[in-house]
Amino acid sequence: MKTAICPGSFDPVTVGHLDIIERASKLFDEVYVVVMTNYQKIGNMTFSEEERVDLIKKSTAHLSNIKVDTYGGLLADYAAQHDIHIIVKGLRAVSDFENEFQQSIANKHINKSLETVFLPCSSNHMFLSSSFVKQIGQLGGDISGYVPAAVEDEIIKRLRKE
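RE: above sequence
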């Protein structure tokens, strides 16, 4: 069985994230969507870890081969602990590639069995980021095309409270 990890902070999950997750679910028998702790963003997160897990579970309920988990350590260690050898990363632009490529080399250095698969995002999601969604939502803009319909109301409620 081929299993992959699709990691991210998902604060909040967007249709761009969901696109990569859905495509990964077609390529692999099982996909772990792992909400990672981003230590550079601690204190600036809009949604708690539990809320992000819940939003992802609701957004991926239609996919039978998705498992949602959390992890606060090194991705390479998580992969080793779960005997997973593939990481799936979505790329929006060339600027994403440089950072993700460096991370893939570091992960491979830590865990020799890891390979990273890069999936380019769909062209209609190239501009989309969680930060973009939060900014529009907090200012009262329409985010309906940017977040999964299954969790849109929950995201809007949170963004409008802040």
